[in-house]
Amino acid sequence: MLVTATARMKYLSIPPRKMRLVANMVKGMPVEKALNVLNFTPRIAAHHLAKTVKSAAANALSIEGTDSLHPEDLVIKEIAVDNAPMAKRVRFQSMGRIFRIRKRFCHLTVKLEAEVEQEVTKKSSTRKARKAVKPDTKTIDANKKEIKTPTKRASVARTKKSVAAKKTDSKNESADE
Fold first, then answer.
1. CB 153: neighbour CB atoms within 10 A?
2. Which of 66, 133, 161, 167 has the smallest number of Cβ neighbours within 10 A?
């Protein structure tokens, strides 16, 4: 079974073009290897990307649990860097001119994927099924002979049926008279 987890960082004050340069380096890598690469990359975008990858890994582990999912199994499936709203500023120049400054922002989305073992999930589902089904009789092993004795639930059900049958019989007898 595939486990996917996402993490988003919005309104980062880095242009998307600069963020994509760093994102393309680690796309498709295992999480541990990607974090090692990002820690030694001398760009501010690497710091933000590392934070987002760590957050996505934590999300995956909290969704699935550490019993069946290990951090070594996580792989970066997709990194999306989208444009965010642009902040427009002005810079005054000589002779009454104005130069526009566009401060670009970006949104960062990281999707992780991991393969989870099927055996663990099958065992847990069969345990639930066994607990849900309770037989109406108990088997007692006495001197290697199997004797079936009714449980309390089965005996209560039988007495209710017999009481209901007696009531209907008494109504039928009174109707016949």
1. 12
2. 133
CA 101/CA 117 separation, integer angstroms: 52
Query: Which residues are CB-neighbours of 154 under 8 A, at least 6 positions away?
Result: 136, 137
Question: From CA 45, how far away is CA 133, in angstroms rounded?
Answer: 55
Structure tokens that stand for 88 in this block? 């427009």
Q: Is 12 helix (H, G, I), strand (E, B) or coil?
A: strand
- Encode pLDDT of 97-148 as tens digits: 999 999 999 999 999 998 877 554 445 555 555 555 555 445 555 555 555 5
- pTM score: 0.63
The partner residues of 167 in beta bridges, in order of sequence, read none
Residue type, 97: R
Q: Which value, in Å, is the radius of gyration of the alpha carbons in the chain? A: 34
What CA–CA distance (Å, rounded) separates 57 from 7?
9
pLDDT tens-digit profile of 23-76? 999 999 999 999 999 999 999 999 999 999 999 999 999 888 877 788 888 999
Provide the H-helix boundaries in 78-136: 118-132
- Give the separation between CA 164 and CA 77, rounded to whole angstroms: 64
Q: What stretches of 13-92 adopt beta strand conformation (E)?
A: 75-83, 87-92
DSSP-based three-state secondary structure for 110: strand
